[in-house]
Structures are given as C-alpha cells and as structure tokens.
Amino acid sequence: MSAVAKADRIAAGRLEPMAYAGNFADLHPPLSRHEAVVEAERCYFCYDAPCMTACPTAIDIPLFIRQIAGGQPVAAARTIFDQNILGGMCARVCPTETLCEQACVREAAEGKPVRIGLLQRHATDAQMATGRQPYQRAAASGRQVAVVGAGPAGLACAHRLALLGHAVTIFEARPKPGGLNEYGIAAYKTVDDFAAREVAFILGIGGITIETGRALGEGLDLAELRQRFDAVFLGVGLGAVNGLAIPGEDLAGVQDAVDYIAQLRQAENLASLPVGRQVVVIGGGMTAIDVAVQAKLLGAETVTLVYRRGPAEMNASRYEQELAQTKGVLIRHWARPARLVGEAGAVKAALFERTRLEAGQLTGTGETFELSADMVFKAVGQRFAAPALDGVALAHGRIAVDGERRTSLAGVWAGGDCVAGGQDLTVVAVEDGKRAAMSIHHQLQR
Amino acid sequence: MADLRSEFVGIKSPNPFWLASAPPTDKAYNVTRAFEQGWGGVVWKTLGLDPTIVNVNGPRYGALHGSDRRLLGFNNIELITDRPLQVNLDEIKAVKRAWPDRALVVSLMVPCEEACWSEILRQVEDTGADGVELNFGCPHGMSERGMGSAVGQVPDYIEMVARWCKQATRMPVIVKLTPNITDIRYPARAAKRGGADAVSLINTVSSIIAVDLDRMAPVPTVDGKGSHGGYCGPAVKPIALNMVAEIARDPETAGLPISGIGGITVWRDAAEFMALGAANVQVCTAAMAYGFKIVKEMIAGLELWLDEKGLERPAQIVGRAVPNVTDWQYLNLNYIAKARIDQSLCIQCGRCHIACEDTSHQAITAMKDGKRHFEVIDAECVGCNLCVSVCPVEDCITMAALPAGALDARTGQIVQPDYANWTTHPNNPQRVAAE
User: Fold this and answer.
1) Is B138 noted as a catalytic residue in this protein?
2) Does A107 touch chain B (CB under 8 A)?
3) What sign results for the dihedral spanned by CA atoms A224, A225, A230, A232?
4) DSSP of A332-370, one letter per residue?
5) ipTM value for the complex
6) Is B372 an 8 Å CB contact of chain A?
C-alpha cells in the first residue's frame, strides 16, 4: 500500500510505483512489420486520393503506403518528410479520425479506414531507427534567418530553410525546444522522449542553432532581429490561457490545464506529481481531454469533464471523447461553471448551471448542480498573448498572415497557433512553417 | 441433396475430389489422414525404379504471396518419391484394403523402355490399386533424365508409352500432361491414339518464383544456386482451365475423360473445371497450404450449389460450358456493352478513372460540376471491362449490353440485332462472303 494518507485531498503517489509505466504506455503501440504490410495492402491507391487532400501538409499518403507494402518503410518516410518533417509526431498526435482517416474511402465503404496514422508512424520510426539523415543541405546561401519559437511551426520552417542552404537561428523562450510537443500533448501519445528525439533528428540536418531562454519582449526585440537577419519567422504559439471569470478562480487546487500538462510532461517521476481525488475539468477541447485522462491515469478517483455545449460542439473529436470515457472520465454536457466553492482557501466544490440553446444562443437555465472537487482544471481555451511585435497587424486577436504566411511587416513571416485562421493543430503549424520557409527562400533569392 | 458419387474411367469414389500425385500422397500416413477428412481418392505420389531418387536437402519450395501472405502461387523442385519402391507398394496395398470405397490411383515415372513400364505395372497391379497415372509432366529434375515433361513434350513418346502400358495392364491408364508445350491438343491427341483411358492436367508450369536479391540467386536457393521448378496454386488456374477446355472442344479428343488439375482451392474452382469438361478434379497446393480439411468445404459447397441449381449429380455439369468456348473470330462483333457505375455503391476511390484515363480510353470522368464524380462517358467507352476489373467494390461497376436499335454513342451507329463476326467483317482480308 502506498504511503498516501486517504484523507489527503491532493497527493502524489496515489498508485503503486509499478502502475505508472503501464498507465502512461504508448496509447497506440507501433505496428509490427507484418502488421504494417497487411495494413498497407488494404490501401486502394486512390486516384487524387481524398486522404491526401485532407492532410494539411499534403503528404502523398497512397505513395508512402505503397512503399511500405513494397517493403521499404525508409523510402516511405522520405515521402512523408518531404512534406512534413514532423511526420513522426503528427503520426502520433494528428486527429487522423477527422483528417486523413475520415477521408479514406474505406471509411466510407466499411467504416474501417486504412490506419494511416499508424502506418506513418511505422515509416517514420523506421527512418529514425537508421540513425541517418535523409537530407543533404544545399550549398550555403550566406543568408541568415531568425526563427522565434522552437515549436512545430518554427522547427518546420527552420528545417526547410536549412535544407535550402540558409543559416537559421531559433530563439526559444523555454528551456527546451519542441513547443507543445515537449510541453503539451498527453504523455501516452509521445512516449520514450519522442519529442526530444524528433528535435534532434530535425536539427541533424545542420545549419540550425537554438538559443533557449530567449523570449520576445524579454531582451529579444523584433526590430533588432529584423536588422540582424535577412528574414524573421514568428512561431511563438498562443502564450496565454482563458480564465473562467467566476468567483473562486483563485482558490488553491484550481489550475490551468496547460500548466499541469507541462509539469506532467517534464516530471522525472510521475509518482511525484500531486493529483486530486475528485477532479473536475472545465472545457471541451483536446487540452481538456488530455488533462482529464491523465489525471485519471495518475490515480484520481473521479474525473468529471464538464462542457457547456453538446458532444457535437466539442473541439475534441468523437474519438478523443470516447478515449476519455474508456479511461474512466465522466463527460457531462450542457453546463457552465457558476462558482468555485472553497474551504480554508482550497477548492472543495464546483457549482454549475445547466445550459441550453435558445434561438442559437447559449443560455443558462437557472438550474444548478454541484460537483465535489479538490482539484479543478481550467481548459477553456488559449489566446494569443501578443508579445512585443513591433506593430505586426493582428486579425481576430492573432497575427494576420497571407497565403505565404507573410505578416504586415516586410521581412517577417509567421505561422502556427499564433496566426489567425489556423486550427491549432501540429500538422497545420508544420504546413505554416514549410510555406513560410518557401516564401522566405523565394524572397531571399531575389 | 445432390449425390456426389463419382466414376472416372470406371474408378468409383464417393466424391470427385482427389488429391493429386504430390507430397501429400507420398505415404500411407498422409493418405489415411486425407481419407479420414473425406477425400474421394488419391493419386499416390509418383513411383520410380530403385535405387530411389534423392531430393535436395535444402529448400524445395518457394511461394508467391498475396495480401497477408496468402499463398497465390507455389513452386517446387521436389522430385518423385524418394522412398523404396517396395515400401510404397506395400503401403498402397494396405491402404486400398483399408479404404476400399476410395479411389487409389498410382502415379508412375520410369525410363522410356517398355520393360521398365511393364515390370512396374505388374507390381502395381498386385497392390489392388484402381489405376495408374503416367507422369509425363514434372518439369524439373526428372526431365533432365529423359522422363517427366521430357516425355510429355514429345507427342510420339506419349503415344508410345501409353500404348505399352495399355498392352501391359488391365488397369485404367491416365496420362498426366505437362503445360510446358505450345499447344496442349497435340499431347492429348497422342495420349488418345496410344489408347489412354483419360488425361489429367495440368502438371506444374516451369518457373522461377523469385530472385533473392541479396544472394543474386533464384528462390528456393540451395547453397547459392537455384533451379527452375514447377509452378502451381491459384495463380495457374487460368492456364489450366484453358488447356482443359482446348482438349474438351477438340474434335479429335472430344469425349476423352479429363481429370482437371491446377489451383483448385474451393468448390467453385472445381465446378469451373467440370463445366469446361473435367469429369473430376485433383488438388494439391490448397491441401499443402491449409491441410486436408479443406475438402469438407469443397464437398458441402458443391452439394449446396448443385441443390440450388436443381441438379443431382456432378456429371450433369461436366462440359456444360464447352459449347460456349469458341475462337475469337466467332465472337459477335454486334454485341455492344458499356460500363455502368452504380453511384450508390461507389466509394470514390477513382481507380476506374485513372486506369481508363492513363491506360485505356479516357471514358470515365473524375469530376462533375466541380465535385469528385466518376461516371462513364459512353462516347468513349469501348466496353473493355478494365474498370470492372480494378474496382474494389463488387458489382459497383457492371457491363450492360446495349439493346438492338440503340445508338452506340462511340461509333454513332445503331446496334444491330443480328450476329456478325470477324469472318465476314469488311476489314478482314480473308473474309468469307456472308451467305
């Protein structure tokens, strides 16, 4: 029996020491070689394939799957990386059920799409296992590009620029590169330190240096970067989380989900991470699901996720909702938080008001219910915390960019979650970085 | 319930499913297990003269795999039995005594000397076996020694040996033919001239099944070298069906009993061979891939199908498709078909479009009103059936014949009601005047 006193409301080490590894093991274990070939042979090699159209990075999915069927997963990886250098992480975290696998004609035909995500992982793992670099840089151009943010957008941009012969310096605010791949995302989706290994793989092309602990507005100045470098790419992410704006938000035990996930991802030992006994999660997106599931896996007795609208409106896919439910998370719809109730400065319950749609407007019904809680996670979305941007124009609260990911400032490009019109997906960030890199390259060639 | 009892050149068996002469029929142990599962008969693995041949001690088989390593084609470099003649003869006698209702035919291969054949036939007769099958088919190893397909490729030799055998024994003589010839009718005719009671075909097709790219040698590789083998399994069925049909419809061999062999795996395969003239069938590769129990599916399947057709005996379907096998020149050129895509079944894979667009007649759309949409363009469709062949959804694309009087949008001609073939076509320099 663990040393946790039953009465402790928030405590570390709720599980037997051996249980953590099992709980946080790979959500989707990799396919064996034979499994991969069998799965690959299910692919119809469609003409103008719908899966490829559905992929934000336009990976030639039928081609890479055919290369796996042909016994060459390393060749398949090259097809993937040509379009998406973070193909390994995307294979793990992409909501394939709403992207390529939803578009797969076998989904239409029989409700069983080709498991494209797992095949992509098979291929990219095979390449990384070789320990070799698939790419060789073009001759040095003598041009220097600054990339702000070492998340998926910045890394994708930097890799493509390095490939084309440019020298890249990445400025990253946090101690480690990787962005949300390193600090966000559920642990069971990226086991064995994959985020760090992928960064090493990307940097392996050469020509990219990273300076960590460098944040815009904190000693790093965009105007100065524009002077020192031939081009600047901003991939700074969102940076701020939305609050609930209800009484009790400052009580102990009330926490931002993104912070908790970051702690979890960086924890040396998961058994050292405190978790509540009765956990309430407020929100309906991927972060809400990720924190809810992980709280349960850390040993919380009950985890209730409350969302103000219905299942169809949740940003988390149906698949993610089912995953949470399978792991023991209770999802309650049509209720919004009204007040967090405290005792001796710590949260002890959350009060919710039921909601409904009235003429398309979400309204409270006045009817309330209370959930006991010793830990409450806020996961009601993130917003762009505009750092010192030297007058870059915004749209809808995020950086405005054109099709080539150019901002309103000459010589400054942007991509990833910090730009307007995105979907807050890793794969979209990669596409942004890639497009910006090509645009920068064309600009520098003039 | 249909009655599957079968009689082939006077040999009775409870069903028309025999195991072909091959590894599964090399020993009493295997044959007994086969009979326990319900096989109607066996052709015992080919006997030769002592001293026994020897086999390679490395790999004998190679495979062509389909999806999920499904065995589509199989290749072997095994020779005839490598057990002493007397051991085989004793076991044949014991098995026949224990299973009197099953067909037990003995395959033979000895040098082309009359004394060799008459001597071994005498010995086989003593076992009480029902008949013999002359192995003129094996394309590897034994053929290098003037036996097997080396005999089967020379019609005069076939006729000569068949005649010797018919003179030397009262047992029915079946001649097993090699497909490694140009025109299967010649060896079949020779067998008939020699007095053979029946032919069985096909034996295996000369083949190299794969190349090991690391060793740079054919598969199976024996100490760095490979030799061509004999190809069999589902992949050879189309070759076998054609050869069976050729013999069945050849006026010189019409009526000669045929035992059909080549890739038979399920009941439907057997029914197809029978429809083209085989009175019974022999199976090997499917048993080697899955074990003897597969015969249960074949028996139940053929019974059910005959019942559904209102038929009582397999004999009622033997040769039923032969009248419909004809030469190309007699095909009706006034028959006009167009592909039709059932939009309710279409899963939008686009395979029909790209196959037609890249490699055929540009007769299937990819887009309609700005949307992904696959539809046949009658003005381009020649009715070739490629789209039907590549479509992953059964019955999604079908071929529909245009009725007489309809307009063929491709040619601008009205479909004619009468039959007209190449022999009378104006473009045929050798045409005959239409009577």
Assistant:
1) yes
2) no
3) negative
4) E-SEEEEEEEEETTEEEEEEEEEEEEETTEEEEEEEEEE
5) 0.89
6) yes
